[in-house]
Structure formats: structure tokens, C-alpha cells
Amino acid sequence: MAKPAILVSRAVFAEVIDRLTACCAVDYHDADAPLPPDQLAARLAGKQGALSFLTDRIDAAVLAGAPCLKAVCNVAVGYNNFDLPALTQAGVMATNTPRVLDETTADTAWALILATARRVVGADRWVRAGQWQGWKFHDDWLGADVHHATLGILGMGRIGRAVARRATGFSMRVIYHNRTRLDPDLEAGATWVDMTDLLRKADFLVLMVPYSPATHHLIGAAELAAMKPTAHLINVARGGVVDDAALIEALHLCRIAGAGLDVFENEPALDPRFCALDKVVLTPHIGSSTRATRLAMAMLAADNLIAALSGQRPPNLLNPEVLKEKIS
Ligand code: GLV
Questions:
Q1: What's the rounded Cα separation, in Å, for the pair 73 and 309?
Q2: Beta strands of the chain (E only): which ranges?
Q3: 103 belongs to the catalytic site
Q4: Is 285 one of the catalytic residues?
Q5: Fewer CB within 10 Å, N side or C side of the chain?
Q6: Which domains does the chain have, with CATH numbers?
Q7: pTM for this entry
Q8: Taking CA 83 as the corner, what is the angle to CA 244 and CA 269, rounded to the nearest 5 degrees?
Q9: Residue 288: CB within 6 Å of ligand 1?
Q10: Structure confidence by residue, pLDDT tens digits, 15-51
């Protein structure tokens, strides 16, 4: 039997390509840049599956040109690059890569908490620039304490809980907000609060909500104004959850003390005003970026794709309605 034709839309580890090649005819876009939308659409035509990335927009227009498509498997836990209703409507299975990146992404949130609180990046630049004239008691780098502070988590899913677990070692108080309160055994000592209290009480507010129309600009001017002037905002979730223009304004006006940002609106074309702000630490969407985790994510996406194309239910199916429709 002929192997199913698939597209791998960006460069990925060789082990993953070897695994896919064993059971699929792979059209490999072996490049670090995403395919432009017209080329993505052209290369999906005639394919039965795709290993996709968060930079690949998969919508009704793309799907209309790819009638043989059975599964699109994202190498990411977030899937706001998918028009999920359009995939479901087209009968195409969609999958993501949950769990394997939880701990690594929580580590990144903590890297940003500590880096913003203790001004690590600015201090490093200053030392390198030869500006350090000697130790001073009233030095230029007075930071904020992380230990015993209040950690606020907006979106207490698996990654949010992994961020919260790490706070124990820093003797922090942990508060969180979710639309629905977690079972007490999942809260692990964290306290549910409403959004107003979360904004008002957090010294470090970590955003962990997925991006969707419902979370677009969830943190805007009003929310930033409700935070403590000493608070730090950490975003390792998605650009668009924060209104970047409002954040820049709030930082300029000292409405909050700082921000650690791994994600931005319009990535990679972030607002250049961020770069002029000493109070922010900026990283290029590297939340899950360790070799082990990125490999685990890509392998999980490959497992999803292989399962879907061999008639099994993929482990991380996002739209099970597609299977129900096939059975009924
Ligand atoms: C990364 O941003 C992911 O969603 O996996």
C-alpha cells in the first residue's frame, strides 16, 4: 500500500523525520523560516497529513485546497493558528502537544520572574559595557524580592500549576484565577481569587491562559492600572492576551514595575518601544525551548499524525467530533 503523503512545514529534528519517513511519504520544508501562506496552501494540496507549527495558519481557505487532508498535527500546545471549527467542518483531525512542555515552560516563567525582579539582563549589559566602577551599597541595581512575595497566576492549568509548585521553595503566597475554581487537591495550597483581587494583590502576575477571541487583550490599560505599582507582569502564554501598547504606556507611567515577556503581539515584529525600556526582559518565544522538550513535542506530534493516518484515534485529538461524524 502506498505511504500517505504528508507535509512537514518547518525544520525539525532528524529523528522526527526518520520516524515519519518510516510510514509516510514526507514533503519536508527543511528551513527555519515558515512557508508563506500561498506556498503552505500549495504544498498541502494532495497531502493526507501535516506536521504543522504555530506559525502556520490553517483556515478554511487552506483546507479548501487540500481535500485529501485527514490530520493536521501541531508541534505546540497552543493551537490558535488553527481555525478549529473550519478543520472540524472539513472533517480534518487537529492535534496539539500537551503535557510534554509543562515543566520547561514553567522554568521559563521562573527565569523571567527572577530576571525581571533582580534586573539580571540590564546588570549583565552594564557590566559588559564596562560601566561597573566598584561595589556600592546604594547600587544602581536595587531589585524586588521574590521570596515571600505573592505570586498570582491567571490560568491555573497544568503549566500554571507547575509554576505554582516552584513557588514553595521561595516561600511565596500563591493566588490564582480561573473561570472555575480547581478541585482543592489540584490547588496544592494556592488560593482562588476573583480577577479583581488577582490584579490587586499579585506581586508577580504570570499569564498562562491560551489565546482566543475571549482572551484577546485580557490584560489592558484598566487591568494594568489595577495592579500594584511594584508588581511585575510575566507573559509566557501568547501575544495578544496583553495589549502591548497599553503595557508600554503602563511601564512608562510606572503603573507597574516591570515585565518579563516571551510572547508579543505580531511576533516577531514586536513594538520597538519595548526595546527602549530597561524594566522589561524580552525573550523570543522560547517557553518550551530545550532540546529535550522540543524533541518530545515533535515526537508527540509525529505520534499523533501516524495514529491519525493509520485509522487510530490520535492521543491529543482536539476535535473528536470529526470521528463521531465518521462513525455515524
Ligand atoms: C508554544 O508556544 C506552544 O504553544 O507550544
A1: 11
A2: 5-8, 25-28, 49-52, 71-74, 93-95, 150-154, 173-177, 191-192, 204-207, 232-235, 258-261, 280-282
A3: no
A4: yes
A5: N
A6: 5-100+291-327 (3.40.50.720), 102-282 (3.40.50.720)
A7: 0.96
A8: 30
A9: yes
A10: 999 999 999 999 999 999 999 999 999 999 999 999 9
**How far is the centre of ligand 1, averaged over its atoms, from the C-alpha of 76 (Å)?**
4
Report d(CA 271, CA 59) in Å as an integer: 27
Helix (H) or strand (E) holding 316: none
Name the residue of 54, 107, 304 to mutate for ligand 1: max ligand atoms within 8 A of Cβ. 54
Q: Is 238 a catalytic residue?
A: yes
Task: Check whether 326 has a pLDDT greater than 70.
Answer: no
In total, the chain counts a number of residues equal to: 328
User: Which residue of the set 103, 187, 249, 267 is catalytic?
Assistant: 267
Q: Whose CA is nearest to atom 3 of ligand 1?
A: 76
Whose alpha carbon is nearest atom 5 of ligand 1?
76
Report the separation in Å between the CA atom of 142 and the middle of ligand 1, taken as the mean of its atom positions: 33
> Is a pLDDT exceeding 90 seen at residue 153?
yes
Per-residue model confidence as pLDDT tens digits over 165-207? 999 999 999 999 999 999 999 998 999 999 999 999 999 999 9
Distance 309 CA to ligand 1 centre (A): 24
Active-site position among 119, 161, 255, 285: 285
Burial of 228 (0-12, 13-18, 19+ CB in 10 A): middle
Please work out whether the CB of residue 239 comes within 6 Å of at least one atom of ligand 1.
Answer: no
Q: Is 76 in the pocket of ligand 1 (CB under 6 A)?
A: yes
Give the residue, out of 75, 101, 297, 300, with the most ligand 1 atoms within 8 A of its beta carbon, to mutate for a pocket test: 101
Between the CA of residue 298 and those of 27, 172, 232, 250, 317, what are the distances in Å?
Answer: 16, 34, 32, 38, 15
